[in-house]
Amino acid sequence: SAVISQKPSRDICQRGTSLTIQCQVDSQVTMMFWYRQQPGQSLTLIATANQGSEATYESGFVIDKFPISRPNLTFSTLTVSNMSPEDSSIYLCSVLGGPGTDTQYFGPGTRLTVL
Amino acid sequence: DAKTTQPNSMESNEEEPVHLPCNHSTISGTDYIHWYRQLPSQGPEYVIHGLTSNVNNRMASLAIAEDRKSSTLILHRATLRDAAVYYCVVGDSNYQLIWGAGTKLIIKP
User: What does pLDDT average to in each consecutive run of 10 residues of chain A (115 residues)?
Assistant: First the structure.
């Protein structure tokens, strides 16, 4: 399975500011995913990020609020823009386990608190 | 999209088997059933997955009903380190995972 790291692991931010979360994988992967996990809740998919193409956003999530970059096959960033307290969540990136499987492997998450 | 239903929480004694149920009555014929677990302050960890047949690995066993409308994750001998939230997840044809609310597993020493 892939080893995934995220930076920062946690942050406390002021409303109206933006935070960029980095996700680094130890091997080349085609598909990467960004999730949000609100306090005490399950995971909600924000978007799917493939290298060389625009990210595909799920209903309720827009590029202006959550811009994503995918410059190569081992790295992606998610920016949470113009933050409000409602954006306080854990943000997780994951990668597809390999060809022919939909198993995903997850990073440790970024715990964001917006004041 | 398929939806999964799990009990909110379950308790078990240490060193006893644990059976975690999941209903996914709207699952499609090609959707895989996955189980993940999440320990506090960590990302979800893959446990097991299957399509139709029962599956075993070093962590757990997965029993899938013949009609595929339900499944059971079996931990053969629970330890305190198995205390976590267990998610039953259905994978669709677009490699996306549909997450349930999860079962909080409490292990009593």
Answer: 93 98 94 94 93 90 96 95 97 86 90 97
| Total count of residues recorded for chain A | 115
Are B52 and B75 spatial neighbours (Cβ–Cβ below 8 Å)? no
Going by DSSP bridges, is the β-strand pair B61-64/B70-75 parallel, antiparallel, or unpaired?
antiparallel
Q: Which residues does chain B have within 8 Å of residue A109's beta carbon, measured at their own beta carbons?
A: 41-43
Alpha-carbon dihedral of residues B83, A45, A22, B44, nearest 10 degrees? Answer: 10
CB contact under 8 A, B45 and A102: no
CB contact set of B66 (below 8 Å; sequence gap of 6+) = none
CB contact at 8 A, B26 and B33: no
Extract the tokens encoding A29.
């992967």
Residue B87 has its nearest CB partner, among A42, A94, A97, at: A42
For tokens 């939806």, what's the residue?
A: B3
Helix and strand tally (H, E) in chain B?
0, 10
pLDDT at B2 over 70: no
Label residue B94 exposed, middle or buried (CB < 10 Å: 0-12, 13-18, 19+).
exposed
Of B34, B99, B100, the CB nearest to A103: B34
Is there a contact between A96 and A9 (Cβ–Cβ < 8 Å)? no
Which tokens hold the place of A67? 């811009």
B15–chain A Cβ distance below 8 A for any pair: no
Q: How many CB atoms lie within 10 A of CB B20?
A: 23
Amino acid sitting at position B9: S
* Res B1: pLDDT: 63
